Amino acid sequence: MKENKLNITFIVNPISGTNSKENIPHLIEQVLNHETFNEKVIFTEFAGHAAQIAQECAKDGTDICVAVGGDGTVNEVARSLVHSNTALGIIPCGSGNGLARHLCLPMDTKKSIEIINKAKIASFDYGIINGLPFFCTCGMGFDAFISLKFAEAGKRGPITYVENVLKEGLKYRPETYIVDDESGTHHYKAFLIACANASQYGNNAYIAPGASMQDGMMDVIIMEPFDVLDAPKIAMDLFAKTLSSNSRIKTFQARHIHIHRSTPGAIHFDGDPIMTDADIEVEMQPKGLRVVTNPDAIEDSAQPNPMLNAFSDFFNNINNVREDIAKSGHRIQVLNKLMLRKLSRL
Q1: What is the DSSP secondary structure assignment for residue 202, as one 8-state letter?
Q2: Residue 303: exposure state from Cβ atoms within 10 A (0-12, 13-18, ≥19)
Q3: Please, which residues bridge with residue 88 across strands?
Q4: pTM of this structure
Q5: pLDDT tens track of the chain, all 346 residues?
Q6: Pairing mode, strands 64-69 and 6-12
Q7: How big is the chain by its Cα radius of gyration, in Å?
């Protein structure tokens, strides 16, 4: 029997995502390399429990702590492991799985455990917004507003997210922001400001296609005001990894930024919303988190994206009726319903 096994703890959030987690312990028993690992499997029992368990793992010197859940669970576990020797593992079971997708981890549970068996660990950056760690993205404006709506919806998944975007997007009013970074002070009227450590929100929605988690920098995305005719193209670019080429998007990189807005409001960190004051600080922490990675990661850009296909159809419909849309909000509502029906069948 192999000596000096690695100690690994799986933290399972039973209510994340939409699928049951009852079979997770069986899959771990079946697939995990027991000659390499001594394992524990713990189901969370209340909000914040994952963070509590992960803190104990870091304190006890556990080698790997695996978040089995969605982006919220990953954030809870990861923020408890920063600047420790305990590495984060991920078995993605949520509705978005932004960090797992950025790292090209498989969405299949069995394959995720097989990646963990390889125990390849690297160090990655993370960010902090108003004292709250984030690992994928944070932001304010429309995406934080939608995060609040999504949290209130009671059900998860990309369809709920898109439904909220379509229902609320035409009513949302841009805000004015004063942004201080290393280059000086800038004024923006913006639909949203996003700060990205990783490339995407989740569900392959790429807010910062070129973002790296190992360069010590955040990608800052300013989405300028746009009208209803611009919206479908922006949505398409989000899923096609071409957002940076959109004329309504301004981007730059920074290590630290201060943002002032006229009133308090919502921000989000890895999709979790919270109300905060008018001043916002965002900074990067280089190489502060150890993560189990996929040594064979190859991003398949040719993989069909059903969300992109749905937005493409929606965009084509809008192009066909541009004059009608300019005259009638009713037409927009009809097209929104058509796209939601298409998405619900994916």
Answers
A1: B
A2: exposed
A3: 65, 291
A4: 0.83
A5: 456 899 999 999 998 766 778 899 999 999 999 999 999 999 999 999 999 999 999 999 999 999 999 999 999 999 999 999 999 999 999 878 999 999 999 999 999 999 999 999 999 999 999 999 999 999 999 888 776 665 555 555 555 455 555 555 566 789 999 999 999 999 999 999 999 999 998 888 899 999 999 999 999 999 998 877 777 788 788 888 999 899 999 999 999 999 999 999 999 999 888 999 999 999 999 999 999 999 988 654 444 455 555 555 544 554 454 444 445 455 555 555 555 455 445 4
A6: parallel
A7: 21
